[in-house]
Amino acid sequence: QAQLVESGGGLAQAGGSLRLSCDISGAGSIITLNSWGWYREAPGKQRELVAEKDRGGPTNYLDSVKGRFVISTDDSWRTVYLQMTTLKPEDTAKYYCKVVSSLRGPLWGQGTQVTVSP
Q1: Is the predicted pLDDT of residue 61 greater than 60, yes or no?
Q2: What whole-number distance in Å separates Cα of residue 51 and Cα of residue 53?
Q3: Paired sense of beta strands 93-101 and 112-117, if any
């Protein structure tokens, strides 16, 4: 049963933009969430953190996406976004939304594919 649902992936050209969305309403109340973020996994590579926000703490970004990607939430705290600009072919991966719940531990979505053509 999906608790986090990602959307917004697809095909983009290098230099283009995409915005990923993650419906986190299935994870419970925002007051129970310790962090939320995005990870990615490219073929043959380990899953890596792309952007993550600690509740009440800093936002961390993968060095290679700093200045290009921005993580945010909507006012209702039901959706987490990843705005991706100046995309590069090396950004091609399956992107996963993750939250860490103080009640339920880490929760993952099923992922959304992002493919960037040269």
Answers
A1: yes
A2: 7
A3: antiparallel
- Can you tell me the distance from the alpha carbon of 110 to that of 7, in angstroms, rounded to the nearest whole number? 10
Q: How far is CA 63 from CA 25, 41, 49, 60, 110, in A?
A: 29, 16, 10, 9, 24
Give Cβ neighbours of residue 63 (< 8 Å, ≥ 6 apart).
Answer: none
- In this structure, which amino acid lies at residue 13? Q
d(CA 96, CA 49): 9
Q: Which of the pair, 89 or 75, is modelled with greater confidence?
A: 89
Residue 27 has pLDDT above 90, yes or no: no
Separation CA 116–CA 118 (nearest Å) = 7
Residues 25 and 48: their CA atoms lie apart, in Å, by 24
Please give the Cα distance from 67 to 52 (Å, whole number): 14
For residue 36, what are its two tokens?
């939320």
